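Posting this for the archive.
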Amino acid sequence: MSAFPTALPSVEAIPLRGGPTLRWGVLAPGRIAGGFVWALHRHTDQRVHAVASRAPERAGRFAAQYGIPCVHASYEQLVADPHVDIVYVASPHSEHKRQALLAIAAGKHVLVEKPLALDAGEARDIARAARAAGVFAMEALWSRFLPQTLLIERLLQDGVLGDIQLVSADFGGRFDFDPEGRVFNPALGGGALLDIGIYPIWFAHFVLGPPPHVHATGSLAPTGVEGQAALVLTYPTGAQALLHTTLFAETPQEAVVAGTHARLQLESRFFTPTGFTLKAARSDQRLHWTDPSGIHGSEGLAWQAAAVARHIAEGHTESPLHPLARSIALLETIDAARSQLGVGMALKARVL
């Protein structure tokens, strides 16, 4: 057994300022887009130049609130704007593919809110289009760019935890049932897995990679989308990931990585800037880390924006940290889980 470290390694966070600056265009201004723009303007040198919405008055209010100089009357006008370098797609999941392809066809780089698309097939279509056009494309899985994630990656690479045996993670919240709202409406890509379950699944993929086997159980909401799901991902090494998501109750929102040498425990809301404890497997030795930046909650989106600008300046058309293949693999896992839960059959029955 390797010795437990006396200190955590030093890992440089993605610089938020002083790097290349992009001019962003925002499609579909809503709550998620607002958090992104706020974080981007508050903590980085990136700037939003334009916004567009299907409702022009909504775009106007958004622009006034966040100091955006240009409002376009349509998505088509925004992607044609020569002063926009990159388009941020923040629409409901059902619109991700269409709007991403619109931006790509106009020759724009694109950052698409998670999930990249409704399913793996749509995600492959986006990837093919971006690669053919030679533009940058990425899913906005912002947790991948947080300082804590970079530090955990270093610990895994250095073998500090030993052989990983278990990853566990959960994300559940209590959502008021609205059959027409984004979370429960199947026409908008509703359901726990696509909306919040993607975070535990991403974390398991980050630690262990895409799983060859997915086992899912759960229950459906009245609209036919998955309201609750428990997943077991199994790997040839014998490692497992135990994941849970629900729209019906608030859960601890914690994550654990257990290895033969040490265990890593992430604090609540593990997908945001937070902290973790590293504990030795056979002693009381432990090390604690807390994000020192002072950035909290969704303001952590800033690291993602800064990373994208640097990736593009370096000539990348995909993120080295979160490439499109990883986004497709995430959706393959979600597709398998939704199929086992009977989501497709339930939605088809509702149509009939």
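The radius of gyration is 20 Å. DSSP finds ten helices and 14 strands in the chain.
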